[in-house]
Amino acid sequence: MSLKIEDNEVDIVIAALRPNLNTFLEAWRTFFSNFHLIIVKDPNLEEDLQIPPGFDHQVYTKSDMDRVLNGASINFSGHSCRYFGYLISRKKYIISVDDDCLPARDNSGVIVDAVTQHISNLQTPATPFFFNTLYDPYRQGADFVRGYPFSLRDGVECLLSCGLWLNIADYDAPTQIVKPSERNTRYVDAVMTVPLRAMMPLSGINIGFNREVLGPALVPGLRLVGEGKRRWETIEDIWSGMCAKVVCDHLGYGVKSGLPYVWRGVGSDTDNPMDSLKKEWEGVKLMEEIVPFFQSVKLPKTAVTAADCVIEISRMARENLASLNPVYAQAADTMEAWVNLWKVAGSDRL
């Protein structure tokens, strides 16, 4: 049941948190040149963006966000500005790469084409219902292991491809404090399907997804007070990823993790994490409530689209979590506003 994804079905979304995109885009030119780029400028960024010539691109700024929001209470500042790109796109698929990421090299020193790898993950089936110990059986040189039921070997459509990265690790502030110099140097040449009902902390740094089917589930719902631009201060994509995983499980789709890698450079993430810990500690505690909540979510059969599922999850969050912390009620409100906005400004197919 492999799919064929054409270049004109894909938008590349770039969240611009820094003004100079020259080095970033020149490094990706070979891999981005066949695609339309949606560059979303952080609404808090005052400087003009520097973009080299030769790219098919559109830049969106705070004025565009204000026009589309039309009073809706959704915060697109910082890393959350990427979600505006998801909303404004009209393509079936999206690949999103942060502006502090450059192409990685594999174990043989070959530059990794992350775009092609994401597309490959989305084109080939996922296998969430039975774990294959050789990981992705659809990759060249792999197959299903002995004992894998033939009735499950067709797999299901993969809606979300979660890539990894080398160099700067995606640690939280407590871990960053005790491992300030640690770098990820291991390139693991593997892709795996995340099993049914298994939760995971998604990071929007390097992902690809089927916007047409899954788009409303990638929602900028939960934000900490004073959430900043350092990765360890953000929790919105973790909440978003759990929403997306629950939706994929309920609707019978799959999620893959592993390849492709990117190389994350040195940026604001190298600042003193003690400052971030003061902001993030609330999020560390919230995760002990968030994970059991999503593990317990059971969506009704009447929820047949991603938008339906997000509305149900928002209702459950309000009923089960809002009494613990007002941030959950705010998340529920944002999820409902997001679905309404998606219906107006986003895809016609929900």
TrEMBL record:
Write out the GO MF terms.
UDP-arabinopyranose mutase activity
Highest taxon of the lineage: Eukaryota
The GO cellular component terms are: cytosol; Golgi apparatus; plasmodesma
Gene source species: Ensete ventricosum
Q: Per its UniProt record, what PANTHER family does this chain match?
A: UDP-ARABINOPYRANOSE MUTASE 5-RELATED, UDP-ARABINOSE MUTASE
Subcellular location as annotated: Golgi apparatus
What's a GO biological-process term for it? Answer: UDP-L-arabinose metabolic process
The answer on whether this UniProt entry bears the keyword Cell wall biogenesis/degradation reads yes
UniProt family annotation: Belongs to the RGP family.
- Predominant subcellular localization, coarse grouping: Golgi
Name the UniProt record assigns to this protein: UDP-arabinopyranose mutase
Q: Which UniProt keywords apply?
A: Cell wall biogenesis/degradation, Golgi apparatus
